[in-house]
Amino acid sequence: MLNEIFDKTAHNMEKSIQALKKEFATLRTGKVTTGIVDTIKVDYYGTMTPLTQVGNVIATDATTISITPWEKNLLPQIEKAIQEANIGVNPNNDGDFIKLFFPPMTAEQRVEIVKQAKGMVEHAKIAIRNARKEGNDKIKKFEKSKEISEDESKKAQEQIQKITDEHIAKVDEAFKAKEADILKV
């Protein structure tokens, strides 16, 4: 019964870390990645569809992303969606595909992106602490209903804290790696 709580808590914390890594992929680093456009949705015949599902998105070099739509008539919608997404560049439409040229990042931009990453880290840590609270609440319910003793409850809560500390450390590691990637010129 307690092991189930530990497993579920660790699983929820792991999901928070995976979500953080997904969010990190949308941040720009020294070289562009297609992750920057992952959150952009295009009006595809009345349905908001991810950009990656209406065309081929590739990073052609360290500063350029090329988007080739499956259907040429989607070029204006893709262009509009990119402009509305406000990712820091204007799309260049040549009639066949759209190119996004990202200028080299300034020191101020890098610092600003690190701040965004710190915000994402805080959200992940909050989610992890919420998972800890959920686990501890379940343990306290078992103690209250006399299913486990006070000592077992304390030990179980210490175990939950240990799991929490491990996951917070993973988040901090992920942030350090991302910060180094962002600040690398």
CATH class group of the largest domain? Mainly Alpha
Q: What coarse outline follows from CA principal-axis ratios?
A: elongated
Number of domains: 2
At CATH level 3, the topology of the largest domain is Topoisomerase I, Chain A, domain 4
Oligomer: single chain
- Output the CATH homologous superfamily of the largest domain: Ribosome-recycling factor
User: What's the total count of β strands?
Assistant: 6
Low-confidence stretches: none
Q: Which bin fits the share of residues in helices? A: 55-70%
Q: How would you write the strand order of the largest sheet? A: 3-4-6-5
The CATH architecture assignment of the largest domain turns out to be Orthogonal Bundle
Report the sheet with the most strands, covering strand number, pairing sense and barrel closure. Answer: 4 strands, antiparallel
Structural class: alpha+beta
- Computed over alpha carbons, the radius of gyration is 22 Å
Q: Please give the count of helices.
A: 4
What is the H/E order? HEEEEHEEHH
What percentage of amino acids are in beta strands?
Answer: 5-15%
Give the rounded overall mean pLDDT: 91
Structural commentary:
This protein is of the alpha+beta class and 185 residues long. The chain has two domains: 2-25 and 106-183, Ribosome-recycling factor (Topoisomerase I, Chain A, domain 4); 34-101, Gyrase A, domain 2. The protein has four helices and six strands. The protein has helices at 2-25, 75-85, 107-144, 150-183, and strands spanning 41-44, 47-50, 55-61, 64-69, 92-93, 98-101. The strands form two sheets. It has a four-stranded antiparallel β-sheet with strand order 3-4-6-5, with helices on one face. Strand 5 (92-93) and strand 6 (98-101) form a beta hairpin. The longest helix has 38 residues, at 107-144. The chain is elongated. The chain starts with a helix and ends with a helix.
